[in-house]
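Next comes the chain:
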Amino acid sequence: MIDVTTDYFSTEAEALDEIAAMGWNPLVRDIVLTEDEPLHWHDFESVIFIVSGSIRFADAHGAVTEVQAGSRFRGLPNFLHRELAGSNYRVVFGFKNKRSEFTMPINKDPALLGT
């Protein structure tokens, strides 16, 4: 289960300020997903601010979560998920690690979890 805080912030600047205060590394992106992603996981922690639009994702059991603009949630390492088609949003990510430190591929195969 993902812990989502709705109505958490109003502007992109607020999200960037919080990430800066945490000492984390920001990334701003516009995302339009036209097909479901394969199930995957990441080996890094993130904080995610949905600036506009909405994101839909499913966990390993198929439970779907939709997160709207103004919401904040934490991306935990090793969480199996897949983003679903129809997600169209602007996002501010905050990463604990620098992106240059990420291992590749970013989206890891579920078979590798725990190895």
Notes: The longest helix spans residues 12-22. The two ends are 22 Å apart (CA to CA). The longest strand covers residues 46-59.
